[in-house]
Amino acid sequence: MYALVEYKGKQYKAEKGAQIQVDLIDAEKGSKIDIDTVLLVSDGDKTSVGAPYVKGAKVQVVVGDSLRDSKVIVYKYKPKKDYHRTIGHRQQYTMVTVENIVGA
Q: What average pLDDT does range 74-89 have in this prediction?
């Protein structure tokens, strides 16, 4: 059984026991979160597609560790204008573990 969920503006495929890397969540490690913005639920035989969300379906996840991605360097340059800027960015993520998928 798997589900497609929308969380913080991005879509993820959730399967029971899978770990998903999502944008930073302001919650304690070990806390449980219910995600009710489920776009699709499939159990192999039957597939439910929402319009836009499947009613009554939710995905229960457990918050894990927070981590930071590798640094991305952004370099801005304009020729003949003596303009150079170097900016670095490290995106923060949280690992969540899918505990259960409740289908409609």
A: 97
Query: DSSP string of the chain?
Result: -EEEEEETTEEEEEETT-EEEEE---S-TT-EEEE--EEEEE-SS-EEE-SSS-TT-EEEEEEEEEEEPPPEEEEEEETTTTEEEEEEE--EEEEEEEEEEE--
Query: Could you tell me the pTM of the whole model?
Result: 0.82
Over the range 55-83, which residues count as b (16 or more CB within 10 Å of their CB) and which as e? eebbbbbbbbeeeeeeeeeeeeeeeeeee
